[in-house]
Structure formats: structure tokens, C-alpha cells
Amino acid sequence: MQETIDSRQLLAFCTLVQTGSFTETAHILNLTQSAISHSVKNLELDLRCQLVTRTGRKINITADGEALYKDARHILNQMQGARLRIQDRQNWGRGRLRVGASTTACQHLLPSILREYNECFPDCILTIIPADTPQLLDMTRRHEIDLAIIVTPNELKNIEVKPLFSDELILVASPIHELAQNKRVQMEKIAQERMVLYNKGSLTFDLIEQYFRQSKVQLQNYIELGSMEAIKELVKINYGVSFLASWTVEDEINAGSLVQISTGKRTIIRNWGVCYAKDKKLSINEETFLGLSQAVASTMQSAL
């Protein structure tokens, strides 16, 4: 019977691939740099191949190392999943859940989801990480978070997404803005206005920028903010105009503090979903959170 690979050596190697640094790997695993170096060297001796090379301070992964990393990451995830599933059986509802979400989702979606989730698992240690979709996807792939509520991009790698709902970004302005006096505004005119938009690194910003390109005009005069609520306040005082999700400005439009401006037949549609790493086996806690997210989203979608 052949010997199995040492899981501690695999963990050291995988962490080294992810960090690219022996020093950072040692810090993450709470070991000495020498211990990490010996673990990787012993793994190479065991497998009779070179996994990493050094060029100065730079760590390079060999072809054998790349092949091992793909298998090793899956093995370690399976081992972690087995441990969590056993713990779930022994201690129903306890454990941890790490959820990532945009600020919009944190403000408008999570409260309803967490209210129901807390009733199911009152003893679960819950961590919420606010970030934009690109960062959330990277954290999900690295298993730094368990689930993330995201705006779904067109292309995804190593990520599983369960759909939640779709929404439309609409152009809004202050009721005293000159655009508010027009039933419909051409994109050339909108491009001349100051835009107050969500962070440039977000998928929402990318969709708006793509919308302008498809209209053959360029997005030029804009400022970026990391909060939809702050954007709404600037638009209210007539500092600029913005594209915001219809469901996030419904109250303001009904109250008359914001007005919707028609831009024609073309629309900006976002698709929301809950994502997790494709090689991840969901725990009971995670399955429940996913189901509650879909139930809340279904209720909200019917109201849109």
C-alpha cells in the first residue's frame, strides 16, 4: 500500500502558491519560515519532483507544482468540508458562516435574510464582509468567505452561482435639474452631465460604462462613491445625475425628492446571485442561508 501525502505539507505548499511568499505563508500558518521551507522540500522529496523554484525573492511554481496545486486544493477543501459536516451533525446550528456582500446588499437584502437565519441558527458565529463583486469573487475562490451575494458577471471561473433576481438601473435626477423637464433625454445630452456613480472597480460601474459605449458616447465627467445612499443624497441636492437600481430609489421617487428620466428602449440590467467556490460542498448552515436568500429575493422580485 502506497503512503498518502502529508496533509500538513500540502497545506504549506498550497498556501505558498497562494501567497507567493515563504514569510507570509509562515505568518498565516503560525510557523517559522524554516518550517515552511522544510515542509515544501520534504514534499518534493516524497513526490520526487521539483514544485517551486526561487529567483531572488520571487517564488516560481513549476509545471509539476501547478498540477499538484489543483489536486491539493481540492483535497484540502474536501478534508475541511468533511470536518464541518461532522461538526454540523454533532452540534446542529453551531459553527461559523462568512458572507460577503456589496454595500447595497448589506443595506437592503441582508437584514431580511439574517432575521430568518438567526431564528434557525442563533448560535452560529456570523461574519459579514462588505466588498464589491470582483473582490468577493477572489475571496470566494480562495475560500476566505463561504458565500457571497454578488452582481453576476458574464464570465465566471471556478465559481457556482445560484440566481436571486434581476434589476434595472435607471437614470435619476433632482426634480429641479433641467433634465427633469424632459420626457426623454438623448445619451449625447446625458454624457455632458456630471455623473455620480458607484465605485469604478465595481461591476455596476462597468455596466454603466458599457451602456455609454454602446450608445457611441463616452462617459467623461463623473465622481465615484462607495455608498448608494451617499450617491442619492448628492443627486437630491442637484450635484449631478446617476444610474441607480429602481428598487433602491422607489421611496425617493414616490416622495418626489428624485425623478426618473427616460433614456429610451435600451436598459441596464443586473443579475444578482449567491455564489460559492465550485469545489465547495455546502454545509447545513450554508444551504439554509442560500435558501433564505432565494426566498427573500423571490418576494422582492415580485414587488419590482
TrEMBL record:
<dbReference type="Pfam" id="PF03466">
    <property type="entry name" value="LysR_substrate"/>
</dbReference>
<keyword id="KW-0804">Transcription</keyword>
<dbReference type="InterPro" id="IPR005119">
    <property type="entry name" value="LysR_subst-bd"/>
</dbReference>
<dbReference type="Pfam" id="PF00126">
    <property type="entry name" value="HTH_1"/>
</dbReference>
<keyword id="KW-0238">DNA-binding</keyword>
<dbReference type="InterPro" id="IPR036390">
    <property type="entry name" value="WH_DNA-bd_sf"/>
</dbReference>
<feature type="domain" description="HTH lysR-type">
    <location>
        <begin position="5"/>
        <end position="62"/>
    </location>
</feature>
<comment type="similarity">
    <text>Belongs to the LysR transcriptional regulatory family.</text>
</comment>
<dbReference type="InterPro" id="IPR036388">
    <property type="entry name" value="WH-like_DNA-bd_sf"/>
</dbReference>
<keyword id="KW-0805">Transcription regulation</keyword>
<dbReference type="InterPro" id="IPR000847">
    <property type="entry name" value="LysR_HTH_N"/>
</dbReference>
<protein>
    <submittedName>
        <fullName>LysR family transcriptional regulator</fullName>
    </submittedName>
</protein>
